[in-house]
Every structure is written in C-alpha cells, then in structure tokens.
Target: DUF2197 domain-containing protein
Amino acid sequence: MKVKCVICERIDTLQDENPLAKKLRNRPIHTYLCDECNDRIATKTKENRDPETYRLHHLLNKEADF
Model:
C-alpha cells in the first residue's frame, strides 16, 4: 500500500498486513506521518510538556477574583 506523509508529502510503501495500513484503509480519517515527521513532532511535544515550563492556563484563570 502506498501512503503519503501529510507534512512532507513523502511517499512510502507499507505492507498490506501492517496494522497501520489496515487502520488507514478502514478509517480514512486517520493520517499517515513518516518516521522523521513523527519523531520531530514527538520531540517538540515533549519539550512543550516539560514540567518546568508547562502551565495549565485554565487553572490560572480560575484564581481570578470577580
């Protein structure tokens, strides 16, 4: 099965027995990310969710006194 990365538009080939290929075939709403894009997004997400810099904005708004 040929798949295209939604970010970099690189075309890859997946085996038909691969669980990801089955998921993409049965549920077209799921999108494919190549390994490079997936790793890049994962590292950026981990950096953003670093406990030292991560703040929950909805909790900060509840402290406001009206």
